[in-house]
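@channel sequence for tomorrow's demo:
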Amino acid sequence: MSNQHQNANIEQCIEHCVDCHHICLETAMNHCLKMGGKHTEPAHFRLMINCAEICQTSANFMLSGSDLHKLTCGVCAEVCRRCADDCERVGDMESCVKSCRNCADSCASMAA
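structure tokens (generated this afternoon):
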């Protein structure tokens, strides 16, 4: 893979991570808290916040040029997959599901 192609993949992954951080945090703190019920079950709410945090961390590792970004991206992909599945289970959070799946796919390819 060329250096230019690798840089484009990193930039795209950073974008997906930043987007997922934004959407998960915003959805949890606004939509979920307003909806209550299954949207604020501790396991679900915790997963959304954890997803936002690992996305931000992964983006920061890539932005800093750390060669450890493959490790954070591997964890990020797993957390994002779980968050997407759980948001789908709870329902009415399609933008979160989509963003988490995009980030999971992007981070999985970075971790490979």
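heads up for whoever presents: The CA atoms of residues 37 and 90 lie 10 Å apart.
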